[in-house]
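User:
I would dearly like some help making sense of a protein record. Take your time, and here it is.
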Amino acid sequence: MDEDARRRRYAWKRHPVFRFFASTPLAIVLIVVISVVLVWGTVLGARTSLRVALHSVYGGIWFQGLLGLLALNLLCCTLRALPYRLSHLGFLVTHLSLLLVYAGAVLTINFGAQGTVVIVEGRKTDFYFDPAFVQCTDASSGEAINISTTFEKRAALLQERYDGIVHARANGPGGVSVLVDRYYPDASPAGTSTITFTIPEQNVREVVPAIADPDKIVPIGKTGSSVTVERTFYDWKDGREAGTPQDPGNPAAQIVVHRPGGDEALTLFARFPGFSMRPEATAGDFSATYTYVSESPELLGWEAKDSVIRLTLTDEEGNRVSAWVPYFERREVALGARRFVIEYGRRVPLGFELVLDTFIAKHYPRSNIPAAFESHLTVRNQAGGERHAVAAMNAPAKIGGYVLYQSSYGTDTVTGLPYTVLSLSRDPGTALLYVGFATLTAGLIVTFYVSPWLRRRDRKRHKESP
């Protein structure tokens, strides 16, 4: 091919757009910017958690855009070298390797999984907790909305100055507005509000949760009577409901006692039971008291254990309901005639069932310090097959495309049985990353050792040719 034909064939390499994307200055700027972002993500992950870094930095569309721009720059730089010669082998292998590494990273970011599996000994589960999202689901339609937990980043960065206020909002199912307005990174509720019914003559003392649910009837022991908690409020002022979780005046519960002789409505006040709205807080031989436990961490002095959020739902008709939801738990709330399930850490199906057969914890001699612990599991697939697996410290179990690492353990407060906490991950880009790093090593060897020899050989042949 003569020089003119060559110039015409590769005229596209002189186009300004191609020259811009194939330029070395663009590559340097992108590498510097991505390096700064990676440093920021590492610092953020160290100060908060890996999931915050993944979803605030690495999982962002803007960061993947930077990676895509760098990959485009690398591809254009590779095409700029056309036509290729044998001495370009190291250059081509190195560039191809970097493209494979980028592809593996993007694949993992978009299709990977990070979560937690919690199983009580002798029990089973078929889902894992994805800590990256808060999920609100309409119980009737099954329609769900997810809110990213990137709001946790603010609490970690402000640390002691953090006031608990967040504004993570989304439009939920059927026109419902979903708002996370409070978040505390180290809190768990110390108790719940209750209503206590007493019948001294029958030696009856029954305690029921003070959870407003007009459709639920709770039996009072074996008395043949029952109660419905119609609603609760934080205060009553000037003939209307007032007060907030942060500033409750005299919290009250409005209930209906269902007796064989008929129903009777009562209003129970928590702090000043003598201040009553008719009828009185008694029903025949019954007496009832309302014990209010603050929903506000500031007032309650919650124990440092898990994070907690307050989520507020508002519909188009003006109905509004709020609920505190601890980490890895779910709450069901009523909003008008509809019911919603709120999960802090959404539940994601595994595609198989895990049973914790036995949990074994080994301790150092004459101490309570754990030396090793492991979970013996039975894995049941959807076809009915079973196999056994063990997840131990430094020896994860590989099940159904997931890797399960033994993370922690504890004792279930309800059953007294041990439970295991397994960290779960799925990394579909691992194979590409391994191939990319292997070929990158080979490409660097060719670039620094083989290519110079090829160039020297070509120069020698050119000098010797007549």
About this structure: The radius of gyration is 32 Å. The chain has a mean pLDDT of 83. DSSP finds nine helices and 24 strands in the chain. The first helix runs from residue 3 to 9.
